[in-house]
Amino acid sequence: MRPEPEIAIDGIGALHRVDNADRERVRAWRNAPAVRAAMYTRHEISPAEHEAWWARHMSDPARHMFIAALDGVMLGVVSFTRPLGAKNASWAFYAAPQAPRGAGRRMEALALELAFGPMGVETLACEVRVENVRVIALHDMFGFAPAGEITRETPEGRVIAVQLILTSQTWAARRAGVLAQFGHSGGAS
Q1: What is the mean pLDDT of residues 18-32?
Q2: Rounded to an integer, what distance in angstroms lies between the CA atom of residue 183 and that of residue 59?
Q3: I want to staple 50 with a disulfide (CB 3.0 to 4.6 A). Which of 20, 27, 91, 103 is the partner?
Q4: CA nearest 178: which of 144, 147, 132, 134?
Q5: pLDDT tier, 1 (very low <50, low <70, confident <90, very high otherwise)
């Protein structure tokens, strides 16, 4: 049984904080070929590498990771990095390999509702590899604006990404229209 959700929206889904029972599931999802193709590092993550990452992540108060679910079906992972007391945060997500079509849209709506609602974020940023045009277009639909290209040095070489920014004001202006696409008109439950 999952813990109570951090946020839930009827017909869209819910975000539940990860716990240690999710450890191997998160590694398996991260190692799925479609997920690895969108990440900065694309190698398969070993159990030892994942254990070290998991320990760092779970002990860092600036990091928040959630499992997105809809009607008992796990959609994927949503994570935020937000230093304590900061009004700015960054986020990332990836769908589970078996997630139904539209999972990314649902996870993004849930993430934005959590960030700009209970978390009190004013500016939310993300980075997307330049060749990942589908995800860039998805973020654009939600109101994210490009803030420039950045280069990341990874063990696998140089990666160019687009940094995207969304403010709480832009989300407030777009929110009703975005949620209406899901047949939802109100706030989170």
Answers
A1: 94
A2: 38
A3: 27
A4: 144
A5: low
Which domain covers residue 50, as residue numbers?
Answer: 7-180
* Model pLDDT, residue 2: 65
Q: Is residue 139 part of a domain?
A: yes
Residue recorded with tokens 């191997």: 24
Residue 173: give its domain's CATH number: 3.40.630.30
Ramachandran class of 150: left when φ > 0, alpha when ψ lies in -120 to 50, beta otherwise: beta
**pLDDT tens across 34-80, in order?**
898 888 888 899 999 999 999 999 999 999 999 999 999 999 999 99
Radius of gyration of the chain (CA): 16
pLDDT (0 to 100) of residue 188: 47
Is residue 155, in this structure, part of any structural domain at all?
yes
Of 94, 49, 87, residue with least CA distance to 67: 94
- Alpha carbon 78 to its chain's center: 3
Q: What sign does the CA torsion over 23, 87, 119, 162 have? A: negative
Give the pTM: 0.92
Quote the CA–CA distance of 74 and 77 in Å, as a whole number: 9
